[in-house]
Amino acid sequence: MPWYISLRELEVFLGIVDQGTVTAAAQQAGMTQSAASQALLSLENGLSTPLFDRVGRGLLLNAQGHALLPRARALVDQALDLQRLFTDDAGIFLRLGASTTIGNHLLPALLAQFSQAHPRASIQLVVGNTADVVEAVAQLRIDAGYVEGPSHHPELLMAPWQSDRMCVFAAASHPLAQGPVTLQALTEAPWVLREPGSGTREEVERLLLPHLGRLNAVMELGQSEAIKQLVAAGMGISCLSCHVVAEWLEQGRLVELQSPLPPLERSLYRIQHKDKPGSRAMALFDAMLQAHFASAA
């Protein structure tokens, strides 16, 4: 009698990957621990290979498990989409990730627009630095990610999404805010920067180092909002997306510095897993984005 993979077995497999133990996976799936253990055993026997290395009482995903993971998530997600195919907005489940500038300043209005069009849709947005979002997409925990720096992860597809203008700014009372500044003055000034590994930090260095040679970083922070606050308090100068500082520039609390630097533009990127098919929710969201930016242009 032929053996076929069941969705329940894949659900248990994914539960163990996400939760770390058979017990937690069983609780997530609403089944007994013995039933979950049997489902995993059936899956491994059917595939004729172990999917986890047994270390003491723990389970560590092995190479075969890593190979199965994206396809298992894709199959389970497709099954959920099939269940929701003939339902209304209650069947739309959108899972997105975004690096901090995009997640805090660009996506909220777009997600609000999507929610108004689909009021019963479920929307999840995970905000972190670029590395966090790349990892979430690579592990298929989210449908797509929007990040501020390019990713070279072999499992991901990446495409430019939008352009973003960056600006160098200081407090209105800062000496460099009183008139045009030289590149030498920018080189010697104290800088407050995002942490290494963030998309913004990588792009700031890519844009500025060819002109300044170095950045005199006196503080590194994980949040753009904290940088904005410190610069406004006179801590130093910084470079962030104009979206982040637009309101305070208008209020006069911050000033964009005038210098010989060329216009600072970067690309924002959309990333998705190469083995994950598009969901109904993502198709609807992508269509809304296309219409939104077409009308804005």
What does this structure look like?
The protein is of the alpha/beta class and 297 residues long. The protein contains 11 helices and 11 strands. The chain has helices at 7-19, 22-29, 33-47, 63-84, 100-117, 130-138, 183-188, 199-212, 224-232, 242-251, 280-296; strands at 52-55, 58-61, 93-99, 122-128, 144-147, 156-171, 190-194, 216-221, 238-241, 254-256, 264-273. The strands form 3 sheets. Strands 3, 4, 5, 6, 9, 10 and 11 form a 7-stranded mixed sheet that branches. It has a two-stranded antiparallel sheet with strand order 1-2. Strands 7-8 form a two-stranded parallel ribbon. α1 (7-19) packs across α3. The model has no long low-confidence stretch (mean pLDDT 89).
The number of helical runs is 11
Fraction in beta strands: 15-25%
Overall mean pLDDT score? Answer: 89
Distance between the termini: 60 Å
Overall spatial form = elongated
Q: Characterize the biggest β-sheet.
A: 7 strands, mixed
Helix content: 40-55%
The tally of beta strands, per DSSP, is 11
- Rounded to an integer in angstroms, the radius of gyration calculated over CA atoms is 24 Å
* Uncertain runs: none
Q: For this entry, what is the oligomeric state of its chains?
A: single chain
What are the secondary-structure elements, in order, as H or E?
A: HHHEEHEHEHEEHEHEHEHEEH
Structural class: alpha/beta
